[in-house]
Amino acid sequence: MNAPEDRIRNLGIWQGAISIEPLSGGMTNRNYLVKDHARTVAVRFGEDIPVHMINRANELAASRAAHAAGISPAILHHAPGILVMEYLQAKTLTPADIDDPAMLGRIVKLIRACHLDIPKHFRGPAMIFWVFQVIRDYANTLKDGQSPYVSDLRFLLEKTEALEAAAGPFSIVYGHNDLLAANILDDGKRLWLIDWDYAGFNSPLFDLGGLASNNSLGEDREISLLEAYFEVPVNDALWRRYQAMKCASLLRETMWSMVSEIHSTIGFDYKSYTAENRSRFDGAWASFQEL
Asked: Are 118 and 69 in contact (CB under 8 A)?
């Protein structure tokens, strides 16, 4: 297969000579900044990844719907394994940005737009991202791959069943399902949400719990997040359901990294990432047990 740079040059969409610059980030994709005589775009490379349940046709459909909903850049061209999208002159958020109360309020509006507006524009079959089933599938993938973590799986699956029982009753929205700080951009006027690898229908608590766990929000911020999203005071029942889903988010991220250790070809220190997320999950689980 041609190198990514060669495939970019051969897309047949450019006006004149182009420059290609790798972009940092992307744990399941390779990303490039490309300039021709007329415009600057972002080019994203990524094939289907069955072990992570990533389907690029779903990513394309979600990206288009998110653009139509006004929360994601336009897709300008696509080819097998390639998305060419509008490049935004915007700042990538950090966990410190998300911890700011004013920014958190803006992010809640972005999440609600994702949850409620994307289904109005989504075309074709839509996926569901059910974190508990994702975890169960990861466990089977780890067994098949003779992962060094196989001995942990029975205990992790027992916790998964307990979390699934505690997180209901469930309402369903259209989730982004990967709310890392790096997937939220600020152009100075508005926020944008990018990277729709895992998009699909889900409980709103998964995105809220994922935002909190991925960015290490403290309890005061978590309460503010829930009250801003649901527009009601947080009661004990909602708090427990939310904490269960936050634990599930951390466990899924841990097992995502475990699977990536044995399957990914991208240069990233997955082993350290596994250890970091496992430690955070263990801490969240201990706190959940006290509720």
From this structure: yes
Tell me the domain boundaries of the chain. 4-86, 91-289
pLDDT at 25: 67
For the segment 14-27, the average pLDDT, to the nearest whole number, is: 87
Task: State the fold for domain 4-86.
Answer: Phosphorylase Kinase; domain 1 (3.30.200)
Tokens of 269: 């220190």
pLDDT at 265: 83
pTM: 0.94
Q: What DSSP character marks residue 265?
A: -
Pick the CATH number of 91-289 from 3.40.50.720, 3.30.565.10, 3.90.1200.10, 3.40.50.11740: 3.90.1200.10
Query: Position 5: which residue type?
Result: E
CB atoms within 10 A of CB 181: 17
Query: Which tokens in the block code for residue 243?
Result: 């904490």
At residue 190, the 3 state secondary structure works out as coil
- Report CA torsion sign: 122, 88, 211, 60: positive
CA separation for the pair 265, 267 (Å, rounded): 6
Residue 213 Cα distances to 10, 208, 254, 273, angstroms = 41, 9, 12, 14
Q: Please check the confidence at residue 96 and state whether its pLDDT lies above 90.
A: yes
Q: Which ranges of 2-145 does DSSP label H, i.e. alpha helix?
A: 4-9, 56-68, 95-98, 101-121, 131-144
Compute the C-alpha angle 49/52/58, nearest 5°.
65
Contacts of 68 (CB under 8 A, 6+ apart): 121
